[in-house]
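Hi R.,

Here's the chain you asked about this morning:
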Amino acid sequence: MKRKSFGHYEVIDKLGSGGMGEVYRAKDLELGREVAIKVLRKGLASDPDGLRRFEREARTASALNHPNIATIYHIGEHDGTRYIAMELVEGKTLRELLNAGALSAKKTLALAKQIIAGLAKAHGAGIVHRDLKPENFMVTEDGLIKILDFGLAWG
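And the predicted structure, written out as tokens:
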């Protein structure tokens, strides 16, 4: 990536990529906190359906306030590139945890309860995630799970 910033967000490093774009660790220069910035792939930015889906993800997830759902802070555009600024969740994906070995029954139940609580909040608001997979769950060091990526959500 050639850009070092998106609006008042200064990019620190790349965290990963997915079907809709790339995700970066960034610093919010106005509030002095680290955030995750999801940048829409260039090809999708010129596709009305891709752009609509990206914007729907931001609107959908931002309507939800729950400890097990990553918080959306801002949607914006900088030099023609659309982006979403969201809560930076430090930890490992559920996929990484599963690949490291079997989880205890106690740990599995604790994570499942949190996933159910987050999804119940979304469903109560009329939102269906539609892309539940271990890569879309981040688990922090203290065992808090966050649901990510509402890009395919209906609601």
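Strands lie at 5-6, 9-17, 21-28, 33-40, 72-78, 81-87, 92-93, 137-139, 145-147.

Let me know if you need anything else.
M.
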